[in-house]
Amino acid sequence: MLCRRLGTVDFDSTFEAMKTFTASRTPDTEDEIWLLQHPPVYTQGLSGKPEHVLDPGEVPIIQIDRGGQVTYHGPGQWVAYVLYDLRRANVNVRQLVNLLEAALVQVLGEWGIEAYGDPDARGVYVDGCKIAALGLKVSKGRSYHGLSLNVDLDLSPFSGINPCGYEGLEVTSIATLMGSDCPDMDDVGEALLRHLEALLPAAD
Asked: E strands, 9-152, where?
């Protein structure tokens, strides 16, 4: 699996690049994970309802083709796009979601944060507060989009939406939980890549 560290990149061009990669890949194309951050942006999934956008202010809203409702991306949040051939690895969508949640739980556990996934409201939580979101698109057995993990970011834009379509859902971050002991962004990013690589089954 090839891990690409892309730095801070705009959402639109990355979205187009994911679609192009997925459409053009062959049965032999290596799976990839793109680790990056985005400038402030709200993304609205296929089933997204306008009423879940409360007060976006100057943050742009982009309609996209993943599942789920509206979420926020911004600096201080790691985004990992998982470009993965599910058919080749003999993994179904639910299993992939479970594996992504498990990787996030393991990453947070490295810093003593007890987190968990919720099968009724996908994502990863700490004491009822959402710390990581998931959203995938699968086309011809191949996934794109992926997950986001709140490390050390301004959480106030989440108040402009019902996060992931849940009114009143509180959102947290590693920095909120750990204060001055919050680990370095790069350390968290590398841990995320390491756990994703370890958990995602390779092709037969």
From this structure: 32-37, 41-44, 61-63, 70-73, 77-85, 116-117, 124-126, 129-139, 142-150
